[in-house]
Design goal:
The protein has 326 residues and is of the alpha/beta class. It is 52% helix and 12% strand. The protein contains eleven helices and seven strands. Helix 2 packs across helix 10, helix 3 packs across helix 9 and helix 5 runs parallel beside helix 6. The radius of gyration is 25 Å and the shape is globular. The chain starts with 17 loop residues before the first helix and ends in a 10-residue tail after the last helix. Bound molecules: NADPH dihydro-nicotinamide-adenine-dinucleotide phosphate and the ligand C[C@]12CC(=O)[C@H]3[C@@H](CCC4=CC(=O)CC[C@@]43C)[C@@H]1CC[C@@H]2C(=O)CO.
Length: 326
C-alpha cells in the first residue's frame, strides 16, 4: 500500500522500454530547440543532396552560345554587365540596354575585345514601354531574329521600412515588371521561330518575405506569377520557347553593397559567377535557377513547412537595428 505522505517516486527513465524513455527525453526539450536541431542537421543535408542531384546532371558547354543572338537588359553595370562579358567570351551577338549611354559604350567596347560576334547598345529608361518594344525591333533589324532574351534591369530600390509611397511602387511595377511583359510580347514571335529562351532575373524576395524591400518584392513576386503562368501556356500549346526564372540571393554588386553593406551579416556572392550561372541555366532551358544554391533553395524548402521559423530566421540574418526609418 502506498504511503500517502511520501512523494510518489517515478521509475528512472533508464528502466523504461526504449521508446517511452526517448519520448520522455524529447518531451523535455523545448520546441524551438528541437526545430533548431532539426534544421541544423536535416536542412543542410537535404540541400547537399538536392545540389548534388541538380548540378551533377550539368552539361553546359560555352560553344552552345557561339553565334547566338542575345538581348541583355540592365547591362551597364552589375550582374547584367558580367553576363554581357561572359556572352562575348562565348562568341555570341549581344544587344545591351540601360539608361547611361557612356557606361553602355564602355561595355560594348570591352565585349568586342572579349570576342563577341557583334555588340550593340540601346539606351533609355524602361519606364517607356515603347523602348521595351524598340529593343526587340532593333534585334530583328540587326540579326534577323533573336535566340535569348535576358530580362535583368530594375529601377531604383530603397532598402528601408515601407514608406507608404504608392507612386514609387507604381513606377517600380512599370520598370521591374510591365516592361518585362512588354519585351516578352514583342519578342515571342521571333523566339518561337528560333525555339529560343526567356531568362527572368528575380530574387529570393520574389519568393519569400524579406523586410525593407516591400515595393521591390512585389515586383519580383509579380514576375513569378506572370512568367510561371505563361510557361504553362507555352507548354500547353507546344510552343518551344523556354522560360527560366532566376532566383538570386545576395550578390556583391556595387548597388547591393552600397545599399545593404550595413545590414547584411555576410558579403554577397560573386557577380561574375552569378552571371555565368544565369546564362548556363537559360542555355540548358532550366525551369528555375537558385543562386547561391543552398542559400536560396533551403529557405524555399522551409517556406511552406515552417513559415514562421523562416520569417524569424530571415529577420535574424539582418542587422535590423541598423535600419532607421527615413
Ligand atoms: N545584387 C543583388 O544582391 C541581387 C540582385 N538581384 C537581381 O539581379 C538583377 C541585377 O541586379 P544588380 O546587378 O545588382 O543591379 P544593378 O543596380 O547593378 O544594375 C541595374 C541595371 O539596370 C539599369 N537600370 C536602372 N534603372 C533603369 C531603368 N529605369 N530603365 C532601364 N534600365 C535601368 C542600370 O543601368 P542605368 O542606371 O544606367 O540605367 C543597370 O544597368 C536585378 O533584377 C535584381 O533584382 C536579385 C537578387 C539579389
Ligand atoms: C534589393 C537588392 C537585391 C536583392 O534582391 C537583395 C537586397 C539585399 C537583401 C537581400 C538578401 C537576400 O538574401 C535576397 C536578395 C536581397 C533581397 C539588395 C539591396 C539592393 C539590391 C538591388 O536593388 C539590386 O542590386
Amino acid at each position: 500500500m502506498k504511503d500517502r505522505n511520501l512523494p510518489q517516486l517515478q521509475p528512472h527513465p533508464s528502466s523504461q522500454p526504449w521508446p517511452l524513455q526517448t519520448h520522455r527525453a524529447v518531451e523535455h526539450v523545448p520546441e524551438e530547440i528541437r526545430m533548431g536541431l532539426l534544421l541544423k542537421i536535416l536542412v543542410p543535408f537535404v540541400g547537399l543532396v538536392l545540389a548534388f542531384c541538380f548540378y551533377s546532371k550539368e552539361d553546359f558547354k560555352p560553344e552552345m552560345m557561339k553565334g547566338k543572338r542575345v538581348i541583355v537588359t540592365g547591362a551597364s553595370t552589375g550582374i547584367g554587365e558580367q553576363m554581357a562579358y561572359h556572352l562575348a567570351r562565348m562568341g555570341a551577338h549581344v544587344l545591351i540596354t540601360a539608361r547611361t549611354e557612356a557606361k553602355l559604350q564602355k561595355v560594348v567596347t570591352w565585349c568586342l575585345e572579349l570576342g563577341a560576334a557583334s555588340a550593340h547598345y540601346m539606351y533609355g529608361s524602361m519606364e517607356d514601354m515603347a523602348l521595351a518594344e524598340d529593343v526587340v525591333k532593333e534585334a530583328k533589324r540587326l540579326w534577323g531574329g533573336l535566340d535569348m532574351l535576358i530580362l535583368n534591369h530594375i529601377g531604383y530600390t530603397y532598402f528601408n521600412y515601407f514608406d507608404g509611397d504608392v507612386e514609387h511602387l507604381r513606377k517600380l511595377l512599370e520598370i521591374n515588371f510591365l516592361s518585362y511583359v512588354a519585351m516578352t510580347v514583342s519578342a515571342l514571335p521571333v523566339l518561337k521561330e528560333s525555339g529560343g529562351s526567356i531568362l527572368v532575373v528575380s530574387s529570393t524576395a520574389g519568393k519569400v518575405g524579406i523586410p525593407f524591400v516591400a515595393p521591390y518584392s512585389a515586383t519580383k513576386f509579380a514576375l513569378d506569377g506572370f512568367f510561371s503562368s505563361l510557361r504553362q501556356e507555352l507548354i500547353i500549346e507546344n510552343i518551344n520557347v523556354s522560360i527560366t526564372l532566376c532566383i538570386l540571393g545576395h550578390i556583391a554588386t556595387e548597388t547591393a553593397e552600397k545599399t545593404v553593406s550595413h545590414v547584411m551579416q555576410k558579403p554577397g556572392a560573386p557577380k561574375e559567377e552569378c552571371a555565368l550561372e544565369i546564362i548556363k541555366s537559360g542555355a540548358l532551358r532550366k525551369r528555375e535557377l537558385y543562386y547561391p544554391y543552398a542559400a536560396v533553395r533551403i529557405p524555399l524548402l522551409i517556406r511552406d513547412w515552417a513559415p514562421e521559423f523562416l520569417d524569424s530566421f530571415t529577420r535574424n540574418r539582418l542587422n535590423v537595428e541598423n535600419v532607421k526609418r527615413s
